[in-house]
Amino acid sequence: MNNIAGIGLVLLGSFATACSSKEPAAASARRSDGVPVSVALVGKRDVPLEIQVIGNVEAYATILVKARVNGQLIAVHFREGDYVGKGDRLFGLDPRPFEAQLNQAEANLARDEAQLNLAQANLNRDLAQQKYAQEQSDRFARLFQDGIISKDQAEQTRTSADTISHVVIADQAAVRSAEAAAGAGRAAVSNAKVQLSYTTISSPIDGRTGNLALNEGNLVTANTTDLVTINQVKPIYVTFSAPEANLLSIKRYMAQGKLPVEASPQESSAAKDTGYLSFVDNTVDTTTGTIKLKGTFTNEANLLWPGQFVRVALRLTTHTNALVVPNQAVQAGQEGVYVYVVKPDRSVESRPVVTGSRVDQDVVIQSGLQAGETVVTEGHLRLAPGMRVQPRDEKGAVLKDKKKES
Questions:
Q1: Contact 154/141 with Cβ under 8 angstroms?
Q2: In whole angstroms, what is the distance from residue 175 CA to residue 108 CA?
Q3: Is the predicted pLDDT of residue 17 greater than 50, yes or no?
Q4: Which of 25, 105, 344, 372 has its CA 20 to 30 A from that of 76?
């Protein structure tokens, strides 16, 4: 039994020795192949400098339509939600009371104009009589001086001429009064026509109608009853706020030209509308530390809707040939951000970098890297400076060593 036990121990020891001798060999092999990591090249591209925030769509103009005269609503010429153009008929009020007022005003005007014509005719008649009486008075005055007629006859003709002169003055006053009455009549006719025109209510702007407040048959009170709200959506505003720290940059780049603004609905980043920055508020909101801005959009595709929340990107400028790497290549450490750079011998070094803005899935590198260098994008947790790596592309394929191939 003791011999058998001894033989078993010898065999077990041999097996353990064999296993232990294989493990370092496998580990050594793995170390020689390197740690598998995903890598990417440092690239160059034009990168826009943008401020990205959430904004709110506002109508370019909002009109609350009301009647300007009292009356009964007898016609609605649109359906709720329709697009209407400036000048399109929206509502019709009962015109009959206003037509009657217009007819009465026109009749009064005709009477006043007739009175004016009569007063003018009387004036013309009396002017002719005044001329004749004055000439006769002058002639009788000469005859009296020559002793041909008596003084009473001369004075009678002068008195008659003076009387007609006063009649002419009265006729002139009557003409002026008739002219004033005719003018008032014409004004009354014009006012009646205006009041009649108010029975047809038209759209003052191009826009989209909202909810209809009243239906046909209801009585409408002038300047009080709301009929419908129209929002002008072409063009349209997008209002948003930017941090106060960006105000100087915004003002500086605005001085160079119009700044483009992109807006896209939150549910679809692919659908975008492009406008321009049209308004910068004159006061910074001290409670939030932001400045209110507005972009104007043509909204030809009706992508933007009043009250809608959208993603907004205000582009200040574009950096040409900026260095970019994938976002996941940049790591944060105790001493700041860094990337693992793969050297030609497939060893890695930890290199501190200064990052800039993020664009889609990339981040701008302001310093620390050069174009064409290779950086690690996945597998950082297993790395330490100086370790060898086995680079793989985005699809997981092992990248060949160009030096060994040569």
A1: yes
A2: 17
A3: no
A4: 105
CATH number of the domain where residue 278 is located: 2.40.30.170
Residue 406, pLDDT > 70, answer no
Helical ranges in 230-284 per DSSP H? 247-254
SS3 for 277-296, per residue?
Answer: EEEEEEEEECCCCEEEEEEE
11: in domain: no
Are 349 and 302 members of one domain?
A: no
* Residue count of the chain: 406
Q: Is 22 exposed, middle or buried (0-12, 13-18, 19+ CB in 10 A)?
A: exposed
Contact 105, 192 (CB under 8 A): yes
Total domains in the chain come to: 3
Q: What does DSSP assign to residue 75?
A: E
* C-beta separation of 164 from 133 below 8 A: yes
Structural domain contains residue 160: yes
The CATH code of the domain that includes 395 is 2.40.420.20
Question: Within a 10 A sphere around the Cβ of 6, how many other Cβ atoms?
Answer: 10
> By C-alpha distance, which of 288, 229, 349 is closest to 339?
349
pLDDT tens, 100-114? Answer: 999 999 999 999 999
Same-domain check for residues 391 and 367: yes
Domain of 359?
Answer: 34-43+322-405
